[in-house]
Structure prediction request, 581 residues.
Amino acid sequence: MRFGDRTLRRDDAFRLGLAPALIVLAVITIGPALFLVLTSLTPLNLTLPDTAWDFSTPLGNYLDLLDDPRFSRSVWVQVKLSVATVAVQLLMGLGVALLLNADTPIRRFARSGFLIPMVLPPIVVGIIWRVMYAVDISPFHRFMDWIGLPVGSLITNPDTALMAIVIAESWEWFPFTMLMALAALQMVPAAPVEAARIDGANDWQTFRYVIFPYIQQTMLVAGIFRLIDSIKAFPLIFVLTDGGPGDVTEVTNYYAYRQAFTFSLWGYGSAIATLMVIGIFVLSWAIDRLTRAADAEAG
Amino acid sequence: MQKRADRSARAARRTRNRLRLGDGATLVLLALMLFPFLWLVQMSFRPNADILGYELAFTPTLAHYRALWTGAFPGSFVNSLVTSTASTALALLIGVPAAYSLSRAGFRSSRSIALWILATRMAPPIAFTIPFFLAYRFLGLSDTRTGLILIYLTFNLALVIWMMKPYFDSVPRELEEAAWIDGCGIWSAFWRVTLPLSSPGLAATAVICFILSWNDFFYALILTRTQASTAPVAIVNFIQYTGWEWGRIAAAGTLVMLPVVAFSILVRNYLVRGLAAGGVKE
Prediction:
């Protein structure tokens, strides 16, 4: 009985420890989320005061989104950007991780070096690539001139602007997939790899049939994490192209930002942001399912 | 016998050659990957007359850094430092006891709380910015450091709970129970026994919170104007006012990235856990 009392008292103490965090989290996350959804049901425009709390056509913004070609184009740009960057990051990350998965002093040193792009402030990454893409000062453009293959500015050409963003974004975030791949590779047991070698498997076969099955789950999770984060792309686009030329690099996030903060169409911007939240939650739910499936498999 | 020794010597030589080849490839790739980053750093030391030059031999100058010192940049640097530090401290103060409670008490709601925290990590910043911007106009928190510190909690608090709970899980309960028997209360046992044992994790968590706040651009761009603007926003502001003055921009960029590069090399081994927030199994 006394023991039961103590456990109860302990649980009370733990509730007290948890309460402040939950209250603050509720105020700064659930509060704003509800506010966002409410705003998305109004035509709020800060230049027209009457539009606040006007719920006469609650679904108006969402219906408008259905036939807003700029919105659907932004979703398409987002899909292209996400698919391309995630694919490049997975390949680069895995490739570099395989290279670094040997215990020599140089590789250990390089593991720190390779992660620099990921931790740089995104605005600095933007500036770094703005320099690389500026025709008059970029060492890349100078090199292309020198070998006799001059290229025009990549970020002002509608055909290459998105590719330029993909390159910069992949450079910034491949260290993430690399770190995750490296962590997974270091968990691969040595015995099966050894056995495959003795049985005469070549490098590719060993990788494909022995190592890869151990790391594919981690690679999948890494890919989904990058997919979700790619939906938040902002600083690079802000510094490199500002969504242009035209709207070829205007992803959905950028479009929502424009609607709210440039055009002051808060209700409309909120509706786009609400749809983004829903999309991201569907993806997060997928992660949760996958990691749980992995736990069950391992457990 | 002799033959077998020959064969194993050959195999060892082959392994050694492969390692050497891999080391060489690693260095070449590393140099290529870091080239854009190093280029910006060298630009910040190049005299203005020679800013477009590409000869490696030039007389480095600190002129661009000195020019920064006289403008609005130092103030924004201080803003960055204050908001990042304060938000990190606040997130630890509220988040660490919560992580410990979640680790020790068998709440039935633990799983939903964990999902809520993951959802916070995933939510797009634009979804927070619109309501915060409107609310801050009303509350008078626009363009204040307090406003930034609060919004940085949206990612820092979730991160602290997510990162610290596994650390507390791995501290054996027997140690605390011994302290309880010796008459310690729950929180004093936590303070004296559990927290010191998890201090490496705590330090890494603090550093990652600091880096994420320091690196923020989006929130500061929207929620500040002049008074509270942070260093990343200050860079963009002077691009807008003075155009692309490359030397100064490179110097500002170098200054802003210096602390994070140093810090992140210190906590390299914890970065995966922090940034993937639960995506990797330990």
